[in-house]
Amino acid sequence: MALHKLFRLSSLFRSAVSLTLRRNIGLSAVLFNRAKDLDPIQKLFLDKIRDYSTKSKAAAGGIVDAGPSYEKGVSEEITKLQRLYGTGDLTKFPDFKFTEPQLQEVAK
Length: 108
Hints:
The protein is mostly helical.
């Protein structure tokens, strides 16, 4: 009986150790990959993403790398739209107001 409990405890211990080792090996593999140098393509990709992130924060919600020609084109298009459709704020979504129709009851 005691031998059977010992074997059962041993198998539980083995499975717990196995699970712990698998988790630690998986974690150390991730840390090892981060520590060594990246692939040049990955490094270039990450550098471009970081560069875009800093530029987008500096643009404060505007278009990244928008030059004066882009701004001029946007203002010309807004002027055309205001001339065609009247004055108003074209950067805001319009408010639609629908009235309920008056229905008349039909006699049978």
